[in-house]
Amino acid sequence: MNFELKPLGLLACANEKCDALIVLVPQAFKASKDDLSQLIAQAIKASDFETKPGKTLSLYRPLQANADRVVLAGIGDGSARQVRTAVHAALALVKTPSLKKLVLSFATPAQEGSVRAAVSASADASYVYVTTRSKPEPRVLQKVLIACENASEVKSSFDRGVATVIGVELAKEWANRPANYATPTLLAKAAQELAAFPKFSCEVLGPKEVAKLGMGAFIGVAQGSEQPLQFIVLRYDGAVKTKAPTVLVGKGITFDSGGISLKPGAEMDEMKYDMGGAASVIGAFRAIAHLKPAINLVGLIAACENMPSGRALKPSDVVTSMSGQTIEILNTDAEGRLVLCDALTYAERFKPAAVVDIATLTGACVVALGGVRSGLFATDEALAQALLAAGDASQDLCWRMPLDDDYADGLKTSFADVANVAGRAGGAVTAAKFLQRFTEKYPWAHLDIAGTAWKGGAAKGATGRPVGLLVEYLMSQAAAK
Ligand code: BES
Ligand code: MN
Ligand code: ZN
């Protein structure tokens, strides 16, 4: 899909040849003299159109415009959130099989985040997954022109939006793929392809190298599967060597059956999405390849399947992590923290400025926050604030969760240094407390994206979250210097 940003007012937009023109009208709209403005003003005056977000008015080949269809869409206060609502509502009205070229026109000067929201929402609404269809019907929408008078002011926000879309769509692609089309080996290949970009490199460690590193927890999870585990190390060196890197760590369970602590059958297919954290790391790297900021970035992905077999981990087994800490496995379905803890120890060697792990870690986080906000846990105040702000700016929201030491009490056991599960209560927090034990050497944050990485039900599909948040955070680090 191709995005373009042009400094056009309503008069010029009306002259653009396109399949559909969506005019985004805020409550503060004041009509100018051109025909389209006058038409909008009349529609508002006659109460045929309201500027509340989600409200629309469809027009068929109106004489004022060169477009086949024109939809007026209210954007209320013009904020990013309201623009997203408006673009989704309007696109639902013009999404015909012939919609190839779309013009999204801001009727008044656009706010920064709103341009980004318009880019993301039009991509989101037109995305289709095709990889495993025998007769694929690919996305029809090819070109989106964003038109606003103050285009030069919002250019960087537009660029970030376009980069985010590219990253989000790569993350969606890998997360949506069925588990037999997204094995650890195939995921590693996808990461390796990113090494073709300038200043990018990728190294993949297999079972032998990982055994040498002593990653006993990661190996334990992988040992029930026929698929060999892969430990992926991605790098982007965009700044001077002396600048400490940010490290992103992704949970890459390409299928989570639960292992011997087998999950129930209903909706188990959705556990193909258990590599959503890994997909978001790959997506964030892809976006960074587009934006080329002056930062150093490391991506670590622990990829394997969690399967039951004669060789699989059993409840009561004790494994030794790379950190030397021993872990008693009480539930083999709490595997995410086991693969992550070894990746978090590996992260130490980069002497990172910050480490952020991203994981579809707990069903408890879905209960706590649903699908709106990801759970954010952080040991560092500045890092927490930066991630919260990045979530707001990109409309890829998260919510701070606690890390009081009392939450770790349930992880105590007589048979190892720590158990891999506590009781049912506060499950998202106890999982984070487990991870925290492996993060003492650097500022650390953890994003539990179990509720936000994909949607279930009729509209089942990956969301590409939290690529938007990560890109915004990384760009803010580049600006901070
Ligand atoms: N991948 C799951 C978490 C999950 C469950 C994400 C449902 C999204 C929807 C994770 O590996 C898991 O199974 N966690 C267990 C932990 C429990 C055994 C302590 C859970 O949340 O039930
Ligand atoms: Mn699990
Ligand atoms: Zn899992």
From TrEMBL:
Positions annotated to bind Mn(2+) 1: 256, 333, 335
Record domain Cytosol aminopeptidase: where: 331-338
Compartment list: Cytoplasm
Catalysed reaction, written as an equation: Release of an N-terminal amino acid, Xaa-|-Yaa-, in which Xaa is preferably Leu, but may be other amino acids including Pro although not Arg or Lys, and Yaa may be Pro. Amino acid amides and methyl esters are also readily hydrolyzed, but rates on arylamides are exceedingly low; Release of an N-terminal amino acid, preferentially leucine, but not glutamic or aspartic acids
Domain of life: Bacteria
E.C. no: 3.4.11.1, 3.4.11.10
PANTHER family in the cross-refs: CYTOSOL AMINOPEPTIDASE, LEUCINE AMINOPEPTIDASE-RELATED
NCBIfam families referenced in this protein's UniProt entry, alphabetically: PRK00913.1-4
The protein's name in its UniProt record: Probable cytosol aminopeptidase
